[in-house]
Amino acid sequence: xxxxxxxxxxxxxxxxxxxxxxxxxxxxxxxxxxxxxxxxxxxxxxxxxxxxxxxxxxxxxxxxxxxxxxxxxxxxxxxxxxxxxxxxxxxxxxxxxxxxxxxxxxxxxxxxxxxxxxxxxxxxxxxxxxxxxxxxxxxxxxxxxxxxxxxxxxxxxxxxxxxxxxxxxxxxxxxxxxxxxxxxxxxxxxxxxxxxxxxxxxxxxxxxxxxxxxxxxxxxxxxxxxxxxxxxxxxxxxxxxxxxxxxxxx
Length: 250
What we know:
The structure is a single chain. The protein is an alpha/beta fold. The protein has helices at 11-27, 40-50, 70-78, 97-100, 115-130, 183-190, 231-249, and strands at residues 2-7, 32-37, 58-62, 86-91, 107-110, 136-141, 144-149, 153-158, 167-172, 176-180, 194-198, 201-204, 208-211, 215-218, 223-225. The strands form four sheets. The protein has a five-stranded parallel beta sheet with strand order 2-1-3-4-5, sandwiched between helices. Helix 2 (40-50) runs parallel beside helix 3. Residues 137-240 form the HTH LytTR-type domain. This is LytR/AlgR family response regulator transcription factor. Residues 3-126 form the Response regulatory domain.
């Protein structure tokens, strides 16, 4: 499932875009959770309320709105910073195309947008996200494909129950997902900065807040045990991760 934010001060446009996504869900294997906003200020207020938990894969912004413009809204979102969200601008005025480049725009569409063009651009965007494993990670939850931002994943924990073989709980900044598979397979798929610290736990080193020889505390305040055999390896890998992060900022 892709999470979409649509921002336009024209209620008719909001309704049409929402209908387009509904048609797209019916004709493809993709599904979309669409939230509508009538102003840039309203969208930014939503971002503020999320307190750094950025959940949108895609934003569709009208360029000219009452209040702050779509481009100003995008600039504020990029400065938060939310660099992963893909942005598509809608406008009746082609002269704003050059301004949109400054906020890493995926697409600039001129109104009125025919459904066929909308479908083509959105499908290309969905394909792009699925082909960006370093930024996004797709999991299967029942019959749905859920696209997660890799930095949002905090940990994956094996469910200990006799009737729950190969059942895992994936924990993100905003919610939990129950998935099938083995920890080793997810450890192999995710790679750095994810680390198997216990036979039943994978953690994202980005979310480690403190640790000792026996346990680690994550950004969610959840505490997980470190296996005895993994204790030294965890310290070495985490030290290397921190050093790399420092050098990357330098």
